[in-house]
Predict the structure.
Amino acid sequence: MAFKTVKRPKLSIGERFYLKSVLGGLWLTLKHLILALLGKSRNKKDMAGTQIGVTMQYPETRWDDHLPEYYRGYPTLVKGEDGRERCVSCQLCEFICPARAITITPGEIPEGSSWDKVEKAPKEFQIDMLRCIYCGMCEEACPEQAIFMSQDYLLTPMNKEEAIHNKAKLYELGGTKKGLINKWNQYK
């Protein structure tokens, strides 16, 4: 078996210490500082209470008004306008989840219910938000349109138990969707 020796190019002293990148970053920071001191920084009215405009003052100013319509927050379950669970435990969201954050235990719908023609309903539905990567694939895979990505971004659990959302918590966060939902309609 033949080996080919690859010669590495010699690096200059500037390339060894990343001088171009470091100086570029320092120049950008200095430019923002000068613009802020002159009062000419961009987005100064929207971003900061001090009118400097480089950093958003987070607890006082939030992105709620500036979020785009397509923003993906955390996944939630929704009920129909008649109060029925839309999820039929098909488990497509569980299978497509790349992070394996969703766990579904299928259960039966009680006999005599007006929805007993549906094969099953989720007995348990859990999403581990510490594993969730907010990709939205569960929302796209759901044929019953039971999972939606919320517009909320303030999810701060204090321990692991709070980070695992069960079925009741997911329905509380998702609420009820009224009317015809056309998630995939290109003309909406």
Summary: Residues 65 and 171 are 24 Å apart (CA to CA).
